[in-house]
Amino acid sequence: MRAHNLPLFIIVILLYTNSAQSDATPPFSCDPSTPSTNSLPFCNASLAVAARAKDLVSRLTLDEKVQQLVNNAPSVPRLNVSAYEWWSEALHCVSRHGKGISFGGAIKSATMFPQIILSAASFDSSLCEMQAIGKESRAFFNGGQGKGMTFWAPNINILRDPRWGRGQETAGEDPLVAGKYAVAYVRGLQGDRFEGGEIMREGRLMASACCKHYTAHDLDNWNGVDRYSFDAKVTKQDMTDTFQPPFKACVEQGKASGIMCAYNRVNGIPSCADRNLLTATARQQWGFEGYIASDCDAVAIIHDPQGYAKEPEDAVAAVLKAAVERKKVSESDIDRALLNLFSIRMRLGHFNGNPRMLQYGAINATSVCSNDHQDLALEAARSSIVLLKNEAALLPFSKTSTKSLALIGPNANSSAIFTGNYEGYPCKTVSILQALDNLYNIPTKFVQGCEFANCTSVSADAAVAIAKVADHFMGLDQSLEREKLDRVELGLPRPQEDLITAVAEAAVKPVVLVLLCGGPVDVSFAKKNPKIGSILWAGYPGEAGGVAVAQTLFGDNNPGGKLPVTWYPKEFSKVAMTDMRMRPDPSQGYPGRTYRFYTGPTVYEFGYGLSYTNYTYKVISVSRGSLFLNSSSAVKKSGLISVSELGSKGCESIKFSAQVRVTNHGSMAGKHPVLLFVRSNNLGSGGTRRQLVEFKTVALSQGETKDIGFDISPCESFSHADEDGITLFTVPFFISFCRFRYNSQSNKYDTKAGSGKK
Question: Which keywords does this Swiss-Prot/TrEMBL entry list (predicted)?
Answer without folding.
Answer: Glycosidase, Hydrolase, Signal
